[in-house]
Every structure is written in structure tokens, then in C-alpha cells.
Amino acid sequence: MRHDAFWLTTSDAAPVHVQRWFAEQPPKAVLMLAHGMAEHAGRYARFGAALVAAGVELYAHDQRGHGQTAQRGILGDYAVKDGWQRVIDDLAALNHHIRQQHPRTPIFLLGHSMGSYIAQAYLMQHSCAVSGAILSGSNYQPVSLYRAARQVARFEQWRQGPTGRSALIDFLSFGSFNKAFKPNRTAFDWLSRDPAEVDAYVADPLCGFRCTNRLWMDLLGGLQDITPLEKLAQIDARLPLLVIGGECDPVSDGERLEDLAEAMQRAGLRKVQLKLYPDARHELLNETNRDEVTAFLIDWLQQALDSSAKDTP
To answer: Would you call 119 helix, strand, or coil by DSSP?
Structure first.
């Protein structure tokens, strides 16, 4: 396996840091990955190695305000203006770069947690650019909840400023996540049953930080936008979609992943699959059963490739 990194110039000329895991031989597919909030692309090296061994190349970028990209911006902040659309456009720029390198290779998308919401928005605008998508550690809630939460973020932005980092928002968003896993060893036990993985997250200076009020305004506005069925219906109905997560993930409580899959089906999307793992928490790729999860994802990608080949005249 080979690994490299580069800076990608995006639609507004902002640089985004991208990591790539690849082999010498041409891949049968390429996966682009949108990571979650308060983490970064470098955490997916193990997954990248498994993908490369299966003939799939991985591109993962540090989203705006995250990882190495934050060195040329503000940690925990998308952009001064139009942050939500900017992070969607970054995926489009990455897809364009991949297509230049691999003109005829199928491209898939994996979005985890925050990245799963950005992935949905991307699919609503660019379904034709990918051959399938995986939504991991996602969620589905009423628009009214996101609207109310955005009012809190608006107040905190007024009180602290756009780049303030609200303890109230942090508490309302993540404060209850650890309750189900008492006695708690760390503030992030909800991420995984594997203590070593949790400790690595806690020790990583590019993980676990509070995001800005402006990012929360952008994100909650984006969630309002992608949730209605008429918006989900903008995704290509023929696109293979996998909704995957842990039944003990407090982000979704398991059942809200079922709600997401059901909403997609009600919106007319015909190839939606749901996969839930009992006892697993938020980060399936860092869970105690991560090898099982990784094997399943590789099998799913192969099935999507096979299905696409059958559908091609």
C-alpha cells in the first residue's frame, strides 16, 4: 500500500488537505470519504489499508475547520460565509480531481456522522457523479428540532460572536451521549467499546474540540435543508445507498437510522439498505468488531459494482 497527501484547491480557492491510500495497480473502485465533526482524515488509515488490499483506492480530505485544513483556516469553523455550501462544493472538487486521475473508475462516497449530512446534501446536487453512497453514524430528526436548535445557536452567536465556542451548544448536542455507558472512563466513551480507540481520540489534539457558533449555524441550517422528503427525492432513485450504524450509538439511538432509511424509501429511493450492529457505538470503523464492519463494507461495494455492471447495456 502507498500513501500520500496533497492540497486541493477548491471552488473558492481555499486549500483543503487530502490523503490518499492506493496501490500500484489500477483500482476497481475509488471511495471518497467525508469524516465527522471534531476528527480528521488521518484516523482512517487502517480502513484505507483494508480497502487497498481489496482493490479500492481511498481519498479522504480534512474538511474545513478540521485536521490539516484547519491550519489554513480556523479550527472548528467552515467559512466566514456560505460554509454549508462550501463543504458540499469541496466534495465536488475532490470528485472532479479523482475523475481526472481515474476517468472510467466507479467512485463511491462514504460520509460519517457530520460527513453523512454533507454527503446527503452532495448527493442531492451531484448524484450522477458517484456510483453509490454509504451513510455511517447518521441521524434523522424532525425539521422543527433543527429549527429550534438553530435558534439557540443564533443566540449564542449573538452573545459570543461567530467564532465563539458555546458550552451550551456543546452540552445540548453531546452532553447526554455518555449517560448510557456509566460508569464513564472518559468524556468520549460513547464513541467505541474499545478503550484504546477512545484513548487515541482523547490524546489527539485534532479531535474532540468545540466547534464555532458559526459552524453550528451552518450545520443546523443544512440539516433543515436536507431533511424534507422532497429534498431526499432529489437523490437519484437508482443509486445504491447503505445506511449503517450501531444500535447503541447515542447520536441516533439506532432507531433513527431506521427512520432515515424509511424516509429515503418514502422519497422514492429504490436501493436503500440498512445495516445495524447490536451493542456497537458511534464509530463503527474503530469499534471492537471493526474487522467485521470493514469486510461488510467491502462486500457492499463489490455488490454495488456487480449490480452496476449488470445494469450497463
So the answer is: helix
Q: How far apart are CA 275 and CA 289, in angstroms?
A: 14
Q: 158 in a domain, yes or no?
A: no
Q: Which residue has the cell 455488490?
A: 303
Q: Which residues pair with 5 in a beta bridge?
A: 19
Residue 219 lies in a domain: no
Dist. CA 56–CA 227, nearest whole Å: 31
- Looking at the domain assignment, is residue 209 inside a domain? no
Range of the domain at 300: 2-140+229-311
CATH of the domain at 118: 3.40.50.1820
Residues 66-97 have pLDDT tens digits of: 999 999 999 999 999 999 999 999 999 999 99
The predicted structure's pLDDT at residue 254: 77
Q: How far apart are CA 128 and CA 204, in angstroms?
A: 36
Q: pLDDT digit string (tens) for 58-67?
A: 999 999 999 9
pTM of the predicted structure, to 2 decimals: 0.97
Q: Answer yes or no: is 197 within a domain.
A: no
